[in-house]
Amino acid sequence: MPLESFMPAGFAVLGLLVNPVNSPAQPAATAATNPLLQEWTGPYGGVPPWDKVLPELFKPAFLAAIDLQRQDIEAITKITAPATFANTIEALQRAGRPLGRLDVLFGVMTSNRNAPEYQALDRELSPIFAAADDEITFNERLFARVAAVRDSMARGDLTAEQQRLTQRTYDGFVRQGAKLSAADKQQLSKINQELAGAFSDFATKILADEDTWITLDSEADLAGLPTALVSAYKAAAAEHKVPGKWAVVNTRSSVDPFLTFASRRDLREKVWTTFKSRGDNGNANDTHAVIARIVKLRADRARLLGFASHAHWRMDDTMARDPQKATELMMRVWTPAVARVKEEVADMQAIAAREGQAITIEPWDYLYYAEKVRKAKYDLDTNELKPYFELNNVIAASYAMAEKLYGLTFTEITGTVPVFHPDVRVFEVKDKATGRHVGVYYRDDFARQYKRSGAWASGYRGQRRFDGPVTPITSNNNNFVKAAAGEPVLISLDDAETLFHEFGHALHGLLMDVTYPGLAGTPRDFVEFPSQVHENWVLTRDLLDTYFRHYQTKAPMPQALVDKVNNASKFNQGYATVEYLASAIVDMRLHLLPDGVVDPDAFERKTLAEIGAPKEVAMRHRLPQFNHLFTSDSYSAGYYSYLWSDVMASDAWAAFEEAGSPWDPAVAQKFKTIILATGNSIDRAEAYRRFRGREPDVNALLQNRGFPVGGSSDKGRDD
C-alpha cells in the first residue's frame, strides 16, 4: 500500500526486525536499473509497465523501494525547523511513491496471475512488508512531528481539509500502535509479521482448492442445462485439458448456474459440496489451523492496542464505530429474512411434492427449486433473460450509464498501452462536455488458472491535485466463463448487476476530486455504497431498449418480460439475505472473542445454531474459504458493511425515484459532487446528510427486499 494513501504509513523501512542487504551502493543501483521502480511513462501521465513485469524483479525492487522510502522518512525526521503541515504532513503524502507504484504491480499479479512463483514471493515478502509498515508507525521522531502539527491546529491556520488530513494521520498512527511502549511495539510488530504470513498462507490454500473442477462425462450429466451453459462448460473442459467432456469450475460464476438448472440432483450435491468445502477437506489446503492462528493473533493485537476485541479495533474508523450498532442492524434484517426463507422453502417443497419427488429441500436444491417457483409464481424463467445480456453489450450499457449520469465517455485504447494478459481491455475516460482527459480504465473479465475468484475493483493510481494534477487509473476484474469460439458470452441478470456494481467502484475512483491522496480512501462500511447503488440502473428502460437486445433477433427486451422481472424483484430475497447475513454475523461474532481462542469449525456450527440459521441455506462464504476475512484485515469484522452500505444505497436510489427519473440531472450532480468526488475529505455521515438532507432510512432497504417496514429510520450516526 503506498504511503501517500495510508494513515499513517504504508510500506515502510526495514531496520527493526528485518535486515536485508541494504548497503548504500546496492539499493541505488537497483533503483536505477530495475524497470519496476521507474516512473511510469507513456501517455495519460504514465501507465503501468506490464510489459516489463517479471517475478524475479520484484524482490530486489521491493528492497530498494523500501530503502528509498526510508530515506524519505529520515529526511522528514531530520528537519530542525518546527513541524508544520507542509514539512511533515505533506511530506508524508509524498514519501514512498516508487514503493506505491511497485505495490500496484505486485497486487495485480498476485490477484490476476498468481502463478506459483508469485505465491512464493508473497509468502516471503509479506512479513517484510508488515515490518516495514511498523517501522514508520513506531518512529518516535516522526510521530512527535505529526503530533506537533495536530496540536497546532488550534491556531486556525490550516484549511478544513488540512485539519482533517492532520487529525486522520495522527489517529492512524495511534491506532497502529505509535503510543505503545518499546516492548509492546516489538510484540505488536511480531504479531503483524505473523499475520502477514498467515494471510498469504490462507490465500495460497484457497487458490489451490479453487483450481479444481467437476468433470461431466456424458450427455446425461447435462440434463436441464441451457445450451449456452453447456457450451461454456465444454470450453472450460478444453481449457483444463479434458477435451470432449464438460467442466464445472470450482468458482461461483460456474457453480451457481449449474445449481440453478441441472436436474441431476446427485450432481448438484456433488458440485455444491465441492464448492462449499474449499479449505475444509483435511488435506494440505485445509485452512482451519490458519484461521485459528489469525483470529488469536488479531485478538492479541487488539488487547495490546487497548481495544476490547479485534472488532472494536477494526470498527474504530468506520461509520458504525461500535460493533453493537452493526449487530443491531444485522439482526433487525435477519429476523424477517429467516421468516421469508421458511415461506420460500415451503413453496419449493410443494413443487417437489407435485412433481412426485419425495425429498426434503437441501442447500443444493435451493436455487434449482427457486427457479421452478419463480416460473410458477411469476411465469419467469431466467433463461429467458440471458439472451439479452451479451457481455459486450452489458459493458457498453455501463459506459452509457456513466455518460448519461456523469458526462464520462469511454474510448477503447487496447493495443496502445501494455497489459498483463491478452484478455485485458483498456479505455481512456474523458469528460464529454470539455474533452478533458479524466483517467484510464482497465478491465479483465474472464476466469483463468491462478486468478482469484469473484469480482473486484482495484485502483492503479489515485487522483490528487496535490503535486499534480494527477489523473486516476482504475480497473474492474470479473470471472466470467468464456464461451466456445465464435459464440457470445451470455451472462445472467445477477452477473450484469455484479458488473455494474464493480463499475460503481471504478466510477468512484474516476470521479474522485481531492487534494490529498490521504483523504481519498473511505471507511469500509461506506465504500460499497457507490457500487451498490449503481446496480439499480441495469433494468432502466433506456438501457434495455438500446443495449440489452436479444443477441440473435436484436429485439429489445419486451416490457412484459421486464414487468415479470420487476414483479419478481423481491422473490428469493430470504435466501439472498440469509446467505449473506449468516456470513456477516459469524464474522462479527468471531472477531468479538476477547481472547481469540477458537475452533473455527465448531464456532461456525455453534453460531449458526444460536441465530437459528435455516439448514436449507448455507453461508455465502463459509469460514474455511472466507477470503474477505483471512487474506488481509480489510473486511474482518467488516462484512456487515455491505448491509450498512446498502441502507444508504437503497435510500439514495429512492432519491432518484422521488425525482421522477433514474437520470434526474440534479440528483445525479449532487451524487457526483457530494458522494463520489469528495473521497473522505468530509465526514461520510455528514456527506450523506448533505446529499439527502437527512439520515439514511433503513426502511428503504427493507421495502426493496419485501420485508416488513416500520420503526426508527436511523441506522446509526457517525458519533
TrEMBL record:
GO function terms (MF aspect): carboxypeptidase activity; metal ion binding; metalloendopeptidase activity; peptidyl-dipeptidase activity
In this chain the Peptidase M3A/M3B catalytic domain maps to 260-705
Q: Which cofactor does it need?
A: Zn(2+)
Q: Which GO terms describe its biological process?
A: proteolysis
This entry's comment on the bound cofactor is: Binds 1 zinc ion.
- Give the organism, scientific name: Luteitalea pratensis
Known EC number: 3.4.15.5
EC main class here is hydrolase
Listed A to Z, the keywords are: Carboxypeptidase, Hydrolase, Metal-binding, Metalloprotease, Protease, Zinc
Report what the protein is called: Peptidyl-dipeptidase dcp
Task: Name the family the entry cites.
Answer: Belongs to the peptidase M3 family.
One cellular component term (GO) for this entry is: cytosol
Which Pfam families is this protein grouped with? Answer: Peptidase_M3
